[in-house]
């Protein structure tokens, strides 16, 4: 299960949105997340399957991840609309 958990930065790359946008979606738009207790601040992770379902339901575009960050902006096409 841990391999299917995404970080906030993973979502920034997946949706090509800023950290603030991801936080707003989580707080106000129902983006599903998991709170993992443990430190002063709980760790927040996102279940990949739940995020993909949420994206499809809300009409958010998802971009495929590429290992070279510079090429992402130039060549990526949405994988879901």
Question: Describe it for me?
Answer:
The protein has 81 residues and is of the alpha+beta class. The protein has a single domain, classed as Arc Repressor Mutant, subunit A (Orthogonal Bundle). The protein is built from four helices and three strands. It has helices spanning 8-15, 19-28, 48-58, 69-75, and strands at 5-6, 34-36, 43-47. It has a three-stranded antiparallel beta sheet with strand order 1-3-2. α1 crosses α2. The longest helix is centred in the middle third of the chain and has 11 residues, at 48-58. The relative contact order is 0.19. The model is unreliable at 71-75 (pLDDT under 50).
Helix tally equals 4
Overall residue-averaged pLDDT value: 82
Percentage of residues in helical conformation: 40-55%
Q: Strand share of the residues?
A: 5-15%
């Amino acid at each position: 299960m841990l391999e299917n958990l995404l970080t906030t930065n993973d979502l920034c790359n997946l949706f090509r949105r800023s950290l603030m946008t991801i936080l707003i979606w989580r707080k106000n738009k129902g983006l599903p997340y998991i709170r993992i207790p443990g430190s002063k601040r709980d760790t927040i992770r996102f279940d990949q399957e739940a995020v993909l379902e949420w994206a499809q339901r809300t009409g958010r575009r998802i971009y495929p991840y590429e290992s070279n960050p510079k090429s992402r902006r130039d060549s990526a096409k949405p994988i879901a609309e």
